[in-house]
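The material for today's practical consists of a large collection of protein records. A record pairs a protein's sequence with a compact description of its fold. Instead of coordinates, the fold is spelled out as a row of discrete tokens. We will come back to this pairing of sequence and fold again and again. Here is such a record, shown just as it appears in the course material.
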Amino acid sequence: LTQIARRQMQELDALVNQRTAELRAANARLTGEVAERAVAEEALRRSEERFSKAFHSSPIPMTIQRPDGKGCLDANVSFLELVNAKRESVLAGGTALWANSDTAITIRDELAARHVVRNLAATICTTGGETREVLVAAQNLELGSVPFHLIILQDITDRVRLENELRQAQKMEAVGRLAAGVAHDFNNILTVILGNTAMQLCNPHLDEKLTASLHQVERAAERATALTRQLLAYSRKQIIQRRPLALNDVVEQTVAMLRRIIGEHIALDMRLAPDLPPIFADSSSVDQVIMNLALNARDAMSEGGKLTIATVQVEVDEAAHARNPEAQLGSHICLTVKDTGDGMDAATVARIFEPFFTTKEPGKGTGMGLATVYGVLKQHGGWVEVESALRRGTSIRAFFPLSVDGLVAKSQKPERSSAGWAPTESITILVVEDEEMLREFVSDALSALGYRVLAAPNGRAALDLWGKHNAEIDLLLTDVVMPESISGRELAHTLIMDKPDLKVIFTSGYSAELIGTDFERENQHAFLAKPYLPDRLAQAVASHLQSTSPKPSSMPSPLPEKAAVA
């Protein structure tokens, strides 16, 4: 029994030792696991602390949403500032974020499929009712084994606005170039049509039926001339003669005509600021702007209303320039035409300056009125701003630059009348025109007046004729833009160097600006805008032949021909 008991004690001791060793090993493993877990928890705490700091201090708007979209776990300051909301409201899900509910559905579906959302264009709503354009990035996120959605927003509202403005400016420029090219070619054609029609109508032996037909052709050509004039105004290539102007005087003169046109059902209110400094503008162009804006306002008030025309001097600062990149810094005179009519929605406002765009019924308008206003202001170095809303009327503001001189120019009177001028064959005119039909018409019209005419299709041919007849040629009548790499201005410069007292008349279907930015100061040369009638051609030639000869020292230097102009 003693041996049995001793053996059992030994077995028990061995078992205890074994269990003790196992417990020690388990305790060592547990201690290691606890240490590892502590390290892991510390690393996790630091990671979460870094994430929290990065999340809350990031300038990029971020929010952690629940997968069902009902409320958020957290949102950083940038996000709250973007949506203009308080943290409590955002976390409780009381702030509607997406302008389109499909955006939320798209994000949830993509994340449910374990995809990552990148650069999703969307529109959000702020609590103030403003919409902002954003790019959305989203991904799944687990915090404490609880799934969430991390939503990151990039505000691209300003970028989208600038891109839209750039596209609009490029579109307007492209349309303007097209309009200018069409108007230029049409002016050449119309000069031939109107000129030959006028010459035929001078024939006293025409029968009544043919005379009536020619008058119809003349009226149709005159309507086409008015349209090309509007196209050139829009494309900023119409003929202008800028000088210091008192805008209030032009407004008052125009309004005197407007009172008879707008009708008695519209009240006219004039609010002209006194003692305004002069603007630097073309009088007829300003008159055209006022008339077009007023008539557009009248048409918007078919059932009557109030038309307000106001002028004021404004100072454009950096803030105004930021709101409208077309605005120029400094002092300007603002002409405002305001109506109480139907108003326009944003989509219509975005298109009102496009040529031929109109909301009027067919036959009620050409769609060129506001396009002309846009072009005139651009050509004058100004700009236009529009404020409108449906059933709340429209206000259009036109901004003109101030005159540097600060003095209003007096109306210029012609030097002398050409009524008694008698053309003779002793006067030789060199006609340079690349359009054959137009060249023939001008030659025939001048020959019929009694002048001797030499005609050339381009600058090189004109130089050849000059080499043979330079002593005989008294006047050069040349188109501005021609082929063969020699422009009308370069040709004139070359001939004047050889013969300083040579008279020059430039003609073009484009604006005088194509001759040079200083054309308005080159009073020794004349400019004849296409299209023109024979009597206007005769008057221009006779008047310029009688004018004082230019001084050699004031000869203009040639400017390079503008590319892509036909």
